[in-house]
Amino acid sequence: MRTLRKLLHLPLLFSTLLLLSASEFAWSPGSSKMPYGRGSRSEWGRDEISAEFNPLKIPGCVLWLNAGWGVFQDDEGTTPSPADSVAALWKDRSSNGYNAAQTTNASRPLYKTGIQNGRPVIRFDGVDDHLITPRMEGEFSDGFTWFIVTAVDDGQPANYRSFFGAMSAVTSKNWYFLVTNYPGGLLRQVVTENDIQIVQVVKTLSDGQSDFFVMHLCADPSDSLRGYYNNIGVTPADLTGLTWANIAGAYTEEIAVSGRMKDGSFEYPLDGDIAELIIYERPLTDMEQDWIENYLSVKYGVE
User: Fold this and answer.
1) Tally of CA atoms within 13 A in the half-sphere of 38 that contains its CB
2) Domains and CATH numbers, the chain
3) Which SS3 state, helix, strand or coil, does residue 36 take?
4) pLDDT digits over 72-96, tens only?
5) For residue 262, what are the CA distances in angstroms to 26, 186, 255, 266?
6) Which range has the worst mean pLDDT, 72-86, 147-161, 162-176, 208-222?
7) Please, which residues have CB within 8 angstroms of residue 302's CB and are 6 or more apart in sequence?
8) So what's the pLDDT on residue 204?
9) Would strands 175-181 and 271-280 be described as parallel, antiparallel, or unpaired?
10) How far apart are the C-alpha atoms of 31 and 202, rounded to whole Å?
11) Residue 149 pLDDT greater than 90, yes or no
12) SS3 per-residue string spanning 208-273
């Protein structure tokens, strides 16, 4: 019934939007005009977000990689990547400077334009393509929330694939990001502390599936690990049995964008595209998660 009412009001809504000036879409954290509710997609919220919102409006953004900004074909970041050229440097759009880079030319992904909803992506070959960010030591002591807009070459790959990931170089037992697409199509997040492994299966992809999707996950060390596929959530996984400081404290490593880093070595390369990756250093509220989900779904035309 709620959805039906929203649909009935759409003609009036869009005619009203045409009469509003951009200044009337002004937004700040806590604004009552923004949409909320897990799994909901407010049409009013979508238009406001596309007009005014960006991920830096929400406090705690540690990393923001956006394929529409800051992609360069050289290590120094002086020459923007033209279409179908290599991406040697993908600049962090947050203020933290965690730029993702690759110095080995053969392992650099490609910059592709006009791929999803007319927007560019970074394309990884599933062999050795990957980018690496600097260490993020101590950033995730309170948990994290991340969002990724991505597509895989095949929903059920022959080998393990990771969208991004890292493992402690000290013990090899503490993982804070490991986002994998397994043979059999399991799309999952893994958090491990001293061999205690918490797995959140977010979606089972079909054979041959290559559609773009928005996946996000929120880790609250005092509560749970909650995953979402196109803003549809799955049953949370309990995190209270872990010693979170061992995962996200002093041993936080550099992150591989495509694949994962393990004790300084690279593995699990992604065969697919990444359009955007956003990471926060805390568990976002449900409302904040909706703001980012709506922002990304509008931008990339993902439902």
Assistant:
1) 14
2) 57-68+134-300 (2.60.120.200)
3) coil
4) 999 999 999 999 999 999 999 998 9
5) 44, 21, 10, 6
6) 162-176
7) 116, 117, 149, 212, 213, 214, 230, 296
8) 87
9) unpaired
10) 30
11) yes
12) CCCCCEEEEEEECCCCEEEEEECCEECCCEECCCCCHHHHHCCCCCCCEECCEEECCEEECCCEEE
At residue 23, does pLDDT exceed 60?
no
How far is 297 from 303, CA to CA, in rounded Å? 6
Place of tokens 């009203």: 16
Separation of alpha carbons 269 and 274, rounded Å = 12
Name the amino acid, one letter, at 184.
Answer: G
Cα distance between residue 303 and residue 290, in whole Å: 13
Structural tokens at position 155 = 């929903």
User: Residue 203 has what pLDDT?
Assistant: 87
Rounded to whole angstroms, the Cα distance separating 289 from 222 reads 18
The tokens of 79 are what? 């020459």
Q: Which long-range contacts (CB under 8 A, 24 or more apart) does 39-48 make?
A: 39/231, 39/232, 39/233, 40/290, 41/231, 41/294, 41/297, 42/6, 42/294, 43/6, 43/10, 43/13, 44/13, 45/290, 45/291, 45/294, 46/294, 46/297, 46/298, 47/17
CA angle 92, 217, 196 (to 5 degrees): 110
pTM for this model (two decimals): 0.82
pLDDT band at 68 (very low <50, low <70, confident <90, very high): very high
| Averaged pLDDT, 98-107 | 96
| Dist CA 116 CA 64 (whole Å) | 18
Question: Hey, what are 91's tokens?
Answer: 């600049």
Look up residue 23 and give its DSSP letter: G
